[in-house]
């Protein structure tokens, strides 16, 4: 119970500090939240084993409630029209992950056990999510030991990826790709539609404690809870291995429906309340870091994972440059591929670009749908090539 209260309140403490220390505000509350979570994991160590169930429940509930709240606040049609390159960039991201995984498997075939399984499951994880990783493992009858190792490495390397993207990603991508240019919809200035999302500073969260906003905040929170209930109920009819996927699809769909309902869409606190819950998700997820990986590292497997991430990002940015896709769309598509739906609001926030929020979530859902097929194809192709 104490751990849950701590996870729910620490983001508020970080927001409070960021409002008073400009350097922390420039760093961003998302980065601060991840950093604090990693510090807790490092210093608490094995003591966190006692709260594993709470960590899992809290991360699932916070992201489930947060996603509809964020989508409620967005003009979905306008957001989709503003970024026509997102789908193409996602295609490049998925192709890049497959190519990097396949070529990396050829390089690491002599040092990574059952590398064909690793290649397929890695593609599932990095074109969809951990859900796809599990599905690919089941489809190819993968080793349980390899699967468990991959979950740990996926968490660690994804965390490193996020830290890079949130801290210097936009700056580095800007060395190769042009800046993002908003697209006017219907020839009119649409900035007012996104005005309530424009405050990226820690001060923006002050609206959550403004008394005049309490009624609206309760309304959208109840609506989000109803969306979660409906999504969970519908997911109960899906195969067990795909329940999480169906819940995400349901939450995204119901969030989009809610964005067309005026009383929900116009609530000025919806976005920041959703982002606060995403901060809880980020903090809780970061505390799940298995620090033993740093003392008992499988360097070959670690090198393979690093090769996939770095190789995929380089190949994707080359393709985006050739097709004149901007830096923000590239980063959103890369995040949609490697990190999946729950992290899109985090990346969009770090980029200070709300135009790409809904397109990013849409292409991330596409990754869920295609990741299993791509993972199985790459696994079988790798096995055929190296003869394991």
Automatic annotation (TrEMBL):
Which keywords annotate this record? Membrane, Plasmid, Transmembrane, Transmembrane helix
Segments crossing the lipid bilayer:
28-49, 61-80, 86-109, 121-140, 146-168, 214-238, 244-264, 276-295, 301-323, 330-351, 357-381
Recorded hits in InterPro entries, A to Z, give:
DUF819
- What Pfam families does the entry give? DUF819
Top-level division of the source organism's lineage = Bacteria
Identify this protein by name: DUF819 family protein
